């Protein structure tokens, strides 16, 4: 059974695995548990009020890990009973989970504790978290961000790209989530996408920091390992590209030098050259693929790279001068 479960987790997407890990992350402090509940209700919850002014709270999610976490949070924090419904569409391979707090008294307790309604029973617009005491402490901010990601977030496979986001129904909500994330020194941004507002990060190091804030060490290490491998590959590629460019440059220079020397040979002959230039010209023709250092070592009186390069430049100047004279 455990083996089957491990195989199932391995087949999950990186986003699903991250949520699975976060769904098992528990904070013992009640105020942090309430902050996480507040986030889940705020991001994917709905409050219904019947004709008798009785409240109920409904949370709907497509992720079983989120449903399990929310259900357990309610049970541990408030010790209340909920109703759970599972809806499956086989044609679209789609399953959703709906958890309902049906009892009016329980719904009011949860909404008041999470500061999503005021003392008069009025629901704050868009479940506003502005000046909400639930997210005043740093630990509660972490819990709220974790809940928000569980309810409405996703993270891309780091092998392909670096991207993490939380989708919000309203800009005001997105701005609140952005402020909470950025209070930890990050630089999340908001973009409008169709009818939603998306809070996102695209830099690998900042996504690592956010995973740390949400307390997902396993996902964090997996992403870090991918980043290290990518950086190593990029570094090797840069070195190879640089080396290839240098080789191409060296080969091109050698070909040009050989062409210039052959032109001199075919016009005035190498014997007309000064002794030093004649020797290096003959060596270049004999060893067309040799490096400057190798040519220098082959000279009767060895020369360094700069000395060899100077003589080859002189040969190039002579060839150019001969070509100019030919034009006239």
Q: Could you tell me the radius of gyration in angstroms? A: 35 Å
What number is the mean pLDDT? 86
The domain count comes to 2
- Going by CATH, what is the homologous superfamily of the largest domain? Homing endonucleases
In N-to-C order, the SSE pattern is: HHHEEHEEHHEEHEEHHHHH
Coarse structural class: alpha+beta
Structure description:
There is one protein chain. The protein is α+β, with helices and mostly antiparallel strands. The chain folds into two domains: 2-215, Roll (Endonuclease I-creI); 248-327, no CATH class. It has twelve helices and eight strands. The protein has helices at 2-11, 14-23, 30-44, 64-78, 104-113, 138-152, 171-182, 204-214, 217-267, 275-286, 292-298, 305-327, and strands at 45-49, 55-61, 83-89, 94-101, 153-155, 164-168, 189-193, 196-201. The strands form two sheets. Strands 1-2-4-3 form a four-stranded antiparallel beta sheet. It has a four-stranded antiparallel beta sheet with strand order 5-6-8-7. α3 crosses α4 (64-78), α9 (217-267) packs across α10 (275-286) and α9 (217-267) crosses α12. The longest helix is centred in the last third of the chain and has 51 residues, at 217-267. The model is unreliable at 1-10 (pLDDT under 50).
What is the secondary structure topology, with strand pairs?
Blueprint: H1 2-11, H2 14-23, H3 30-44, E1 45-49, E2 55-61, H4 64-78, E3 83-89, E4 94-101, H5 104-113, H6 138-152, E5 153-155, E6 164-168, H7 171-182, E7 189-193, E8 196-201, H8 204-214, H9 217-267, H10 275-286, H11 292-298, H12 305-327
Antiparallel strand pairs: 1-2, 2-4, 3-4, 5-6, 6-8, 7-8
């Amino acid at each position: 059974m455990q083996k089957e479960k491990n195989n199932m987790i391995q087949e999950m997407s990186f986003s699903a695995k991250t949520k699975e890990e976060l769904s098992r992350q528990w904070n013992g402090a009640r105020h942090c548990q309430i902050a996480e509940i507040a986030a889940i209700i705020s991001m994917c919850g709905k409050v219904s009020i019947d004709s008798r002014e009785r409240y109920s709270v409904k949370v709907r999610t497509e992720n079983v890990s989120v449903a399990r976490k929310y259900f357990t949070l309610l049970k541990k924090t408030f010790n209340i009973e909920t109703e759970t419904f599972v809806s499956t569409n086989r044609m679209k391979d789609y399953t959703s989970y709906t958890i309902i707090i049906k009892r009016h008294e329980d719904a009011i307790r949860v909404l008041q504790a999470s500061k999503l309604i005021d003392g008069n029973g009025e629901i704050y617009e868009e479940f506003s978290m502005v000046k909400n005491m639930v997210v005043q402490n740093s630990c509660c901010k972490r819990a709220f961000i974790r809940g928000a990601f569980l309810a409405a977030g996703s993270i891309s496979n780091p092998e392909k790209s670096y991207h993490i986001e939380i989708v919000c129904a309203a800009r005001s909500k997105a701005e609140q989530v952005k402020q909470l994330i950025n209070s930890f020194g990050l630089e999340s941004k908001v973009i409008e996408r169709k009818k939603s507002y998306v809070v996102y990060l695209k830099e690998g190091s900042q996504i690592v920091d956010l995973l740390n804030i949400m307390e997902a060490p396993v996902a964090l290490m997996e992403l870090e390992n991918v980043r290290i491998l990518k950086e190593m590959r990029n570094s090797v590629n840069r070195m190879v590209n640089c080396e290839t460019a240098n080789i191409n440059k060296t080969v091109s220079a050698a070909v040009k030098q050989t062409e210039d020397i052959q032109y001199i040979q075919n016009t005035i002959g190498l014997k007309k050259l000064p002794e030093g230039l004649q020797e290096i010209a003959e060596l270049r023709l004999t060893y067309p693929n040799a490096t400057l250092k190798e040519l220098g070592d082959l000279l009767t009186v060895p020369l360094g790279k700069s000395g060899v390069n100077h003589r080859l430049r002189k040969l190039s100047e002579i060839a150019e001068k001969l070509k100019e004279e030919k034009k006239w």
